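User: Second chain of the day. Same drill as before.
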Amino acid sequence: MIPDLWFYALACPAILIAAISKGGFGGGVVVLAVPLMSLAVPPQQAAAVMLPVLMVIDVMAVWVYRKSFDGGHLKIILPASVIGIALGWAGFGLLDVSMIRLLLGIIALAFSLDYWFQFRPRKAPQGPDKLVGGFWAALAGFTSFVAHAGGPPLNVYMLAQGLEKRVFVGTVAIFFAGVNWMKLVPYALLGQFNTENLTTSLLLLPLAPVGVWLGLWLQKRVSDKAFYGVCYGLLFVTGIKLAYDGVTM
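Assistant: Same format as last time:
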């Protein structure tokens, strides 16, 4: 397993936040996990450690929301995600560590600024749209492959659909469960599942059910706005650090 204590100081809260988000509280802040862990280890390794944990979290989230989802949207966004996953697979092995850090930093900064300033146009719900939904789902597949950061791109499409909250969370949970399981073979072929990474994932795994339970518990007790504010503030600072390292290292 990874011997660096600084890594675990970052990884433990990162995984808890990701699991809380998957539990239905805090939306797309799972995007924080890999950038935060990448402050201690290479981004590719952070993504590899995170994937098995996410897959377990996804199973729990899908079980919780198994009766609450929109099949019409899933028929569009799940197939389209394959395009993004393929592109991420192709680029993952070609980019060096500095380039991936820079990419993660840009993603983190863009999503933080978009949350605060809402650059995206807010439109009335349009219903399932193959072109628009397919584009954002493909982009979500790409950013998910590179950094498990598919939530914000997907939300550009999904938040505009006006779905009831539980249906929205369930649809997104099923989407990312499918995406993360599809990433399993490409990650293995890229050599990401070595003994060090897998044992580290196993060590961190108990945090997954704790975080999902916390997400369900927090839904009715804590303001989404307050949680988002803290997480996106941390994401913004992390993005600056990663972008700086990507340019200078």
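The chain has one domain: 5-248.

User: Great, on to the next one.
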